[in-house]
Amino acid sequence: MAEAPRPPEGVGVSFRRLLLLWHLPPSNTAGAPIIVRRLFRDYDPGRLEVLCCAREYRAAARSAAESLLPCPHTLFPNFRPFTLRPHFFFRPLLDGLNCLRLIPILRAGRRIIREKRIESIFTATSTAEVNVAAYLLSREFGLPLHYYETDDWEACNARGLPRWLIRRYQGEIFRSAAGLWLVSPEMIRDVERRFGVTGKFLHHFVDAGAYRRASETFHLAPPPAPVEVAYAGSINSMFRDALAAFCRHLNAGMTLGGRQVRLSIYSHACPEEFLGPAVSFHGFVPTERVPEVLARAHVLLLAVSFSQTPHIQQLVRTSIFTKTIDYLASGRPVLLVTPPYSAEVEYFGGVTHAVMTTERGAIEAALGRLTADAAYTADLSRRGADLVEREHSLEALDRVFLRHFRGDK
After folding, report:
1. What residues pair up with 303 in beta bridges, in sequence order?
2. Is the N-terminal amide bond of 86 cis, ω within 30° of 0?
3. Residue 42 · residue 26 · CB < 8 Å
4. How many other β-carbons are positioned within 10 Å of the β-carbon of residue 177?
5. Per-residue pLDDT tens for 90-131?
């Protein structure tokens, strides 16, 4: 069942007519779409228009149709017909071809703005031509542009024409934005250093009460039952190598006080080599079931890449992840396996247990403490819940974000 919209504070004041222009449709399919869907879940659907990629919309409609925002969606084409390997060689060429979509995106955007009397434009980190189109439309029609950098824009795009477009327009977009939101404190500092603009911190929001109720309802099995660890979320280049190391350690055999340690992975897909006697894959979990799934684990895992590839390092330094907020809301202890320079450590280090290596001994010791030291884990859980209630609850969403789109602002 899809979540029912809840009226935000100040619901009597109407929202501005908004064009949400993004490569992806907001939905429950992955991290960034989940964040943006939550931001606009309570927006008046009669005053919201989504303009997004046809291929991505069809994919979301197949896997999570009930989570698409209940407002009109206009689709623009995908000019990248297939994927070729090696990615390093072909991706810049194919993504460069997709930059030609700028023309049909501008055409569709102009029509929507005129017909629907749009008052503001919102976009988030996307393919180069999509964010540039949002900027050009805002300038052409004199509309305020609201930009959300969910991940480092340049690092997310291919070499060649996409990065040329980003370097040409990024400073102008940041400096002209009526609202500039950034996904981590480190990204705020990075943007200020590079462009002389100070953005506002914005991340994931959750119904904290739903997570709390699930954790209070489900009672974890005591010893000698296995120690259950859960990982919920995407497995991409920002997580893959660290998660692979964790899986290898568990599949080689790990016990704590005679209890086997087992990992359950919840995601759209999982590499076959991760699976084994102690690691199992359970598929994608709809948003409404996430609190229940997390409540069944003794420890919740986030494994962040230690890759030395420059664009991955930049993403790790500046990005924090939706799953961490979900984990903290559940009240279960959170284990971060992460390099010391990650944005996760800076923002969540005080409410999680961070291990800054993938070595087996350090991971085993961390799991041992998180399953045996009740006072320590209770303190972590309390501070994590406080952070969620203060900065990432539905009540905070209106104060931090939605108020900027009300008709009286």
Report:
1. 337
2. yes
3. no
4. 22
5. 667 778 788 999 999 999 999 999 999 999 999 998 889 999
Q: Count the neighbouring beta carbons within 10 Å of the beta carbon of residue 179.
A: 17
Q: 3-state SS of the chain?
A: CCCCCCCCCCCCCCECCEEEECCCCCCCCCHHHHHHHHHHCCCCHHHEEEEEEHHHHHHHHHHHHHHCCCCCEEEECCCCCCCCCCHHHHHHHHHHHHHHHHHHHHHHHHHHHHHHCCCEEEEECCCHHHHHHHHHHHHHHCCCEEEEECCCCCCCCCCCHHHHHHHHHHHHHHHHCCEEEECCHHHHHHHHHHHCCCCEECCCCECHHHHHHHHHHCCCCCCCCCEEEEEECCCCCCCHHHHHHHHHHHHCCCEECCEEEEEEEECCCCCHHHCECCEEECCCCCHHHHHHHHHCCCEEEEECCCCCCHHHHHHHHHCCCHHHHHHHHHCCCEEEECCCCCHHHHHHCCCCEEECCCCHHHHHHHHHHHHHCHHHHHHHHHHHHHHHHHHCEHHHHHHHCHHHHECCC
pTM confidence score: 0.84
226 residue type, one letter: P
Query: Based on C-alpha coordinates, what's the Rg of the chain?
Result: 21
CA distances from 295 to 243, 247, 289, 375 (A): 21, 21, 10, 19
pLDDT digits (tens, 9 = 90+) for 152-172: 887 777 678 888 999 999 999
Both tokens of 378, joined, read 């209770």
Per-residue confidence band for 288, with pLDDT thresholds at 50, 70 and 90: confident
CB 321 within 8 A of CB 99: no
> 10 Å Cβ neighbour count for 163?
19
Nearest Cα residue to 177 out of 157, 198, 153, 155: 198
Whether the CB-CB separation of 344 and 327 falls below 8 Å is answered with no
Return the pLDDT at 14.
87
